[in-house]
Fold this sequence. Notes:
- There is one protein chain.
- This protein has 542 residues and is mainly alpha-helical.
- The protein is 69% helix and 5% strand.
- It has helices at residues 19-49, 51-60, 67-88, 91-95, 97-107, 109-118, 126-135, 137-151, 159-184, 221-224, 227-240, 254-279, 291-309, 312-321, 328-359, 383-386, 389-408, 410-435, 445-473, 476-490, 493-506, 510-532, and strands spanning 10-11, 198-199, 204-206, 209-211, 216-217, 243-244, 361-365, 371-376.
- Strands 1-6 form a two-stranded parallel ribbon.
- Mean pLDDT is 89; it is low at 1-6.
Amino acid sequence: MTSPKTSAADLTDWRPEDTAFWESTGKKIAYRNLWISIPCLLCGFAVWGMWGIITVQMLNLGFPFSQAELFSLTAIAGLAGATMRIPASFLIRVAGGRNTIFLTTAMLLAPAIGTGIVLQHPEWPLWTFQLMALWSGVGGGNFASSMSNISTFFPKRLQGTALGLNAGLGNFGVTTMQIVIPLVMTMSLFGSFGGESMVLTKDSGWILGKIVAGTPTWIQNAGFAWLLSLIPLSALAWFGMNNLTTVSPNTGSAIGAFLKIIWIYTLSFVPAGLGLYLYLPAPTGLGLLNMWVAMPLIIFSTLMVMKFTAFGAMKDNISKQFAIFGNKHTWSLTVLYIVTFGSFIGFSMALPLSITVIFGISHVPDAAGVMQHTLKNPNAVSALTYAWIGPFVGALTRPIGGWISDKLGGSIVTQVISAVMVLASGAVGYVMMQAYASATPEQYFSTFMWLFVLLFAATGIGNGSTFRTIGVIFDRTQAGPVLGWTSAVAAYGAFIAPVVIGAQIKAGTPQIAMYGFAIFYALCLVLNWWFYLRAGSEIKNP
């Protein structure tokens, strides 16, 4: 029998657990794929998370949308990215690592360009902005395929470090976006090709401080700027990365692999779009479902669409990977990863607009004694100056979490950071309550930010520890899909946090959101102890 035709990028012999092979051949190839994967993933995070910053500037420019509608844009991007992770976790096996990373990186050009276009038209209806937020979810999906891919290149003893580097440095996409977007909006980046400027109606800011109202700004560069990195990175992925035929034996030609990816991704947009239509209020949607019903419905329907519409070798591969759902550790680690990554990405999405709404307004009672939240705070801090700090710390600590977990075990590290998050989340809620009842909320801002930095640091360390645990518990064929699945469900934090925090701010009780998160973290402390730390646990501190 003749072996299937492969290209120079297809590696047919891959034995990372063989020390001699690893040192002579595997190590160099694995790290090359890792160093290309990281900036591609970084741009995925940037495009996915950019609506958290864009909405702040839309508010500063006087776009004709309410605070709730702006929070919805961030939430839609979050939900779409999480949903796209479900199919993305299966892409490596059916299409190959190199093929997948190249195409999914190149795909980011579409939402980047589309977002730049709609932002030049404040008069366009809300659904056009929501559509671009939905499309930006492609960037969120990239995490699952990227992590699944990198996990196949490294031996088990280096899983925590390799996955920590890929995810941690990739997570810097959130910070990079939060620094780059305010910067590029201050200049005419593409001249006449990039469109006209708009004038700020409220004070804005960037990493170096305040930008006063009346200053021209090019908000469309929030989308267009990513073309400068996405085009060269797509080329780098194509010419520098590899497919492992030991992991992806039936990818076929590159064109065939691309068609599989496009088909699977297109299918996943259908349940996400329908679920949002049933969830979002009029005029965009029907408003029939609340978040806690819409989210499981979207997850379940996405899985079913994939299962029943796949064909040929794709169907066999997807069926094999569905086996992860029969393992109880898939479910326990999914919940634990919501604690860490779900919190990281959720707070990253919600924090900029939360800072603007809580600290940018003087909260004073009217003549009847009813608290009002509309008076501009003359001493307001700019969210665009400070919002990047938390995600920066979270991304910075993620590789540290993987490294420590390789030394001490993942579950003990997860237990410690979960306890920290219980306390920090409760404290943040208390400070938010104080600020939202004050005419001078800025006096609470420093404490608020330090507590959030502590929360982000804990989520980063926990991200590394949880992924290390997955890499140890599951074998090589299952670890990739489990990594993808857990990251997909946890990514719904990017939907939950903006919705929950936004709703509680609207109700005048922002602290309730953080108290609720603290209770959830406490429950997960018990879950982690039960499965991985108690004396009779089946797997001890993996």
